[in-house]
Amino acid sequence: MEEGLSLLEEIRAQFDCQRPDVRTYSPLTLAFIGDCIYDLLVRTVVVERMQAPAHSLHKRKSEVVCATAQAACATALLPELTQEELAIYKRGRNAHSHTVAKNASVADYRKATGLEALYGFLYLTGRTDRLLALVKRSFELTDISL
User: Of the residues 35, 39, 108, 143, which is catalytic?
Assistant: First the structure.
């Protein structure tokens, strides 16, 4: 990896990715990548903070990366979002997905999808500082500790 390039920039360079306007992506596409980024972020923190068997790490991660917890984070963050971020969140929340969560209400699943869309948007636009700040703030507001 080149010095100074973000992971996203390095992926784009190595795999010759096209760069269409992220604002044209469907909200479910943004949520698709946002889910992964959020999962990676939480897994990274859990692994960095805990010396435990993989099963224990997975259980701890799963307490945070689930529709119910993400819905609580989304609700707590709403007053702190910019207009642009709120619009992205609402597009994700209101998107019609053909899947539903196994262990969450439809309302929680939609809120979680909205939050994932926002996280995906921030990641793909290179706003990792804002992404990390929002995740950290959502944990503070909901008393999630990793």
Answer: 35
